[in-house]
Structure formats: C-alpha cells, structure tokens
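INTERNAL AUDIT FORM
Audit reference: QA-55
Scope: verify that the stored structure record matches its stored sequence.
Auditor: D.O.
Record contents follow.
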Amino acid sequence: MTSADTEERHSEAFVRRITEQCLRDRGRRAALRRGLRRPPEQAHTMHAVVAPLLRPSMRQDQEYAYYAVAAMIAATVRDRRNIGRTDEAAEAEASPADDTGQGNRPNLGQSLAWAVCRPGPGRRAMNQATAEKRLHLLVRQGYPGVYQHLAGVVRHLGTVDSQVDWAQLLNDLCRWRYYRDQVAKSWLQSFYRTLHDADRRAEKQHHPSLEESA
C-alpha cells in the first residue's frame, strides 16, 4: 500500500467518525461548528473531538485541513441527510452520465458543476456564472487564505443539495500548500468537463438525431 493509499484511508476514517459524532451528539457538533473559518490555534472547542483522531506526525498545513473539514461537516450536517459517500452517491458518481475522466470520486469542481446542472429535488440551481466566479476565486487563494473562502462555497453547495465528497476534499486540502496548481487544475477541469457533458446530454435529449448520426 502506498503512502497516498494510506492517507486516503485515514481521511475516509476521519470523515466517517466526525460525521457519526455530529449526528449522535449535538454538543460535539456545536463545538466543531464554532471552529468554522478559524485556524486550529483558535479553534479551542474543537480539540476534544479532533485531536484524538490526528496522527502525531501531521504537518501544520495538514492539521489545518482536518480541522477545517471537521468544522464544515458540522456546519452542514443539520441541513443534509447524506453526508460523506452514501451508497446512493457512490452509485451516481460511477454512472456513465457523470463521466468526467477524473475517476469516480468527485472533487469540489465537480460538486460545483452539479450545483449548476443537477441540483437536489426542489432546489434552485446555482447560477453558472456565480459558480464559475467562486471557483476561480477559490483556486487563486494560497495557504491558509483558501479556508476563508472555502466555507462559503461549501455552504452554498448545501443550499442546492450538491454532494461534497469530504474525504476527497480533505485529501486535496492536505496537498494545497505545496501542490495548489495541480489541485486547482483538477477542480477546474472537473467543473468544465461536467458542465460540458451535461450540455451534451441535454442537446441529445432535445435532438435525438444527433446521437444517431454520431
């Protein structure tokens, strides 16, 4: 098993345990939520929940990512029943309709595209220009400035019931300080590919003959 595989497993376990605690204990959920947009040094109410789940050798920027994701989960868990990777979400992500060339784990760019073209039932889609502007602003941010903008983007995704893969987001944030350009590229590519595929499917539905002539 590679170090990347080990890190991915650890992030998935962390997300699962944080989510379970938020659903089970309102007090812990509130303690985590109070750390939103705060660095670990100022998130005093979060330590009792988060600290036991961290590896001692974790870098400071990685630690920041874990605290930030825990706070965002706590801030959204009341409004959304499907937190993390549910069976339904995993099935949807693996569907050919969501082929973005990025594998079957959605990153933040894909989640923003879903907010535009596939909002939750009864939810109003996010304006495409707004989603694009938010994403481009986000990918220009360095460390730790990215966290000041990220919480607002995630909150907006929650209003349209667009799935966020917390473990994937956590992995991307752990790489942000040293590999921001690579992560930013993957978010942007996923965003535009997902929108393009949605437009292509919509066009085929309106003009079935296009599929026959392809």
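Auditor finding: record pair retrieved intact. The longest helix spans residues 166-206.
Action required: none
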